[in-house]
């Protein structure tokens, strides 16, 4: 595992909860039975990913704030467990982590999908309340969740943490300054988490979505084709995870083709151009 993260197996950065690979060639996918917690797993990408991971033979726990929705998900998806959790509340994270570690000690994968995205106008200080809410959910929620489970995960032989950033972590959208900033911070935090945990059994991955047709900020109503269909996105993500997280192209980053326009803008000398394009498109 650590040889993979250090680059000894450069073509192959495997996700332990979905598959494995060998230098130079890809083995057949070997589904393993892991217990996976997905925060923000009650709708959109989170729920879709939960359903696909369960279909791969994993035990999945989805966490969210709405008790009625969690109950409905359990009814509609036998085998998926719902847990009430508010990632903006530190006490909720601490309580749920204690309960899960006690009742589901086999838990060995944590995916931090919970997040919010809202537009802001920076001309007046009225945006500040929105900004603080976004930071609390997207950034502190991610950090607190990781903190709550990291020690437990290190006791597992083949564990993983997957955070969720965004293509906007690499080129911000003028309409959503704080959202973009929090996703850039999640990316940076994940980079260092991977470095610090390189001597443990915990693999650290970062899911980097492009614009996807979810309800996050009305992209599900997009008619321009800019937003990627949810099923198409998740199908590509699952294939990348099976094949080894983009096969080491960006160590630990799960990048679909469509997000590379944003992800690689700076390194390819297109940053200013893309920043202007995003600003003009909204």
Automatic annotation (TrEMBL):
GO terms for molecular function: oxidoreductase activity. GO terms for cellular component: membrane. Gene3D superfamilies: NAD(P)-binding Rossmann-like Domain (3.40.50.720). It comes from the Bacteria. Residues 34-208 form the Ketoreductase domain. Coiled coil: none annotated. The keyword Transmembrane helix does not apply. InterPro entries: KR_dom, NAD(P)-bd_dom_sf, Sc_DH/Rdtase_CS, SDR_fam. Pfam families: adh_short. Keywords: Oxidoreductase. Belongs to the short-chain dehydrogenases/reductases (SDR) family. This is Putative oxidoreductase.
């Amino acid at each position: 595992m650590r040889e993979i993260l250090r680059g000894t197996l450069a073509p192959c950065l495997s996700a332990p909860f979905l598959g494995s690979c060998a230098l130079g060639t890809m083995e057949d996918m070997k589904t393993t039975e892991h217990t996976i917690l997905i925060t923000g797993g009650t709708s959109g990408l989170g729920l879709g990913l939960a359903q696909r991971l369960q279909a791969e033979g994993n035990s999945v726990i989805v966490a969210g704030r709405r008790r009625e929705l969690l109950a409905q998900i359990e009814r509609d998806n036998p085998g998926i467990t719902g847990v009430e959790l508010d990632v903006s509340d530190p006490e909720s994270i601490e309580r749920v982590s204690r309960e899960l570690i006690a009742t589901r000690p086999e838990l060995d994968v944590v995916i931090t999908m919970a997040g919010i995205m809202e537009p802001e106008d920076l001309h007046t200080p009225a945006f500040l309340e929105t900004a603080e809410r976004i930071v609390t959910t997207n950034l502190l929620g991610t950090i607190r969740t990781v903190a709550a489970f990291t020690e437990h995960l290190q006791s597992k032989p083949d564990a993983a943490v997957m955070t969720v950033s965004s293509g906007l972590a690499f080129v911000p959208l003028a309409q959503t300054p704080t959202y973009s900033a929090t996703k850039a911070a999640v990316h940076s935090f994940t980079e260092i988490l991977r470095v610090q945990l390189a001597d443990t059994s915990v693999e650290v991955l970062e899911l980097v979505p492009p614009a996807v047709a979810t309800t996050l900020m009305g992209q599900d109503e997009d008619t321009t084709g800019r937003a990627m269909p949810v099923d198409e996105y998740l199908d590509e993500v699952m294939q990348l995870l099976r094949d080894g997280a983009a096969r080491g192209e960006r160590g630990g980053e799960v990048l679909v083709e469509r997000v590379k326009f944003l992800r690689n803008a700076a390194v390819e000398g297109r940053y200013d151009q893309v920043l202007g394009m995003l600003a003009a498109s909204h």
